[in-house]
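Sequence design from tokenized structure. All designs in this work follow the same two-part layout: the structure record, then the generated sequence. An example of the structure record is given first.
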């Protein structure tokens, strides 16, 4: 890899530090004008501004041509591995069916479960690798990926193996999350408690033993898993040393965010229907809000109160939620647009929400999420003079080049 110089950066905009940014810190970005970044073996060694260039000789020089540079984007919530697609749900939606109506009728997540159980590991690997390539070309250099379309030991493990292998072979840093309790599988219909028990006794120990996941997640929702079932599962996961995540308050507020606060989860995700008490519990428990505005857009729902959460001192992150049902888009740039237009966050708050805050919520805050010496040289050169332009233009891919650990990947 050697030494790389990235020079002629018109504006370098980045949050600073390896911690979650909350309250007024959410919008604290550094802006370096006429900057240059020196990189050695994939790690940033020096950043200078005002036209100064770090001394030394370089194996490669990358000319940013006066453009904007930011940290590589971090997508902290995805369901990247799945069999098939669900385009037929468009007709059901047009006929008036809601997201949970489709799931209750045996479709939705359960439809994808059938297709994922049938898919071979190789098929899933190739399809997911394609998604990772597309995400990188759009500026994402690290992401989280959940299982959750197997709902049985064999298929959940198959998904996590795909995620782990891609994390090793693909340039993207990929953090695996086990989402076994994503829906009640047909074999356990009406027996959610037993499914949770089986998950804790039979699947989690195997995942722990083989180190196949860093986090455990559960869909805490009306007609899916209630707060008590979610508590049982998350406590069991916590006792085994996993970090905790929870799909909470997506459609109904049934206690998921309060539980996240109680257990000190790394993040609670969705939060469209969050209440005051949920927000207070999250602030108290230091839980990051993983907001998913493209899902609100696609489900035609309201938007999580991200601005209020910042005011309450909750670190706000934003992610794609890419999945075949509620958000069939992996475009984190659209999420950036929605962060400004729907959440009413400033461009600086938005940049923090797609870099350091999700990085911390998936355990990568020491390595990525900001541009400063000691961190990985994961960055985007944008076809834009400033980040406002990226927030403003929508529907186009605004990346010019993408650099992962000092190497051009687009
Ligand atoms: O985060 N809400 C639960 N899980 C996913 C959707 C999964 C699906 O519909 O396939 C989500 O939106
Ligand atoms: Fe999700």
């Amino acid at each position: 890899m050697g030494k790389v110089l990235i020079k002629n950066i018109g504006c370098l905009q980045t949050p600073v530090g390896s911690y979650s940014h909350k309250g007024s810190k959410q919008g604290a970005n550094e802006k370096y004008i006429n900057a240059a970044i020196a990189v050695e073996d994939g790690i940033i060694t020096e950043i200078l501004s005002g036209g100064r260039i770090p001394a030394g000789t370089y194996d490669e020089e990358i000319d940013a041509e006066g453009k904007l540079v930011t940290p590589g984007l971090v997508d902290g919530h995805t369901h990247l591995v799945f069999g098939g697609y669900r385009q037929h749900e468009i007709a059901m939606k047009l006929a008036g069916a809601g997201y949970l109506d489709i799931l209750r009728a045996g479709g939705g997540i359960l439809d994808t479960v059938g297709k994922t159980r049938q898919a071979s590991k190789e098929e899933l690997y190739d399809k997911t690798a394609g998604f990772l390539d597309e995400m990188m070309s759009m500026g994402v250099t690290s992401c989280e990926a959940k299982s959750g379309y197997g709902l049985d030991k064999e298929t959940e493990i198959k998904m996590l193996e795909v995620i782990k292998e891609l994390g090793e072979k693909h340039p993207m840093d990929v953090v695996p999350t086990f989402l076994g309790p994503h829906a009640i599988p047909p074999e356990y219909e009406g027996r959610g408690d037993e499914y949770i028990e089986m998950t804790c006794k039979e699947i989690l120990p195997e995942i722990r033993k083989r180190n196949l996941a860093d986090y455990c997640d559960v869909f805490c929702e009306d007609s899916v898993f209630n707060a008590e079932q979610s508590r049982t599962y998350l406590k069991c996961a916590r006792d085994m040393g996993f970090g905790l995540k929870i799909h909470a308050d997506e459609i109904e507020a049934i206690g998921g965010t309060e539980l996240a606060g109680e257990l000190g989860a790394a993040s609670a995700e969705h939060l469209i229907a969050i209440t005051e008490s949920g927000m207070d519990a999250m602030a108290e428990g230091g839980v990051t809000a993983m907001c998913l505005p493209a899902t609100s857009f696609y489900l035609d729902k309201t938007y999580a109160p991200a601005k209020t959460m910042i005011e309450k001192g909750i670190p706000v992150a934003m992610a794609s939620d890419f999945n075949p049902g509620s958000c069939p888009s992996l475009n984190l740039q659209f999420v950036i647009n929605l962060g400004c237009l729907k959440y009413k966050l400033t461009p600086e708050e938005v940049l923090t929400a797609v870099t350091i805050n999700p990085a911390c919520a998936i355990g990568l805050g020491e390595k990525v999420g900001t541009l400063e010496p000691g961190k990985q040289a994961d960055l985007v050169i944008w076809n834009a003079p400033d980040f406002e332009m990226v927030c403003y233009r929508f529907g186009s891919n605004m990346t010019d080049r993408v650099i992962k650990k000092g190497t051009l990947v687009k």
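Residues 192-210 form the longest helix (19 residues). We note this feature because it recurs in several other targets discussed in the main text.
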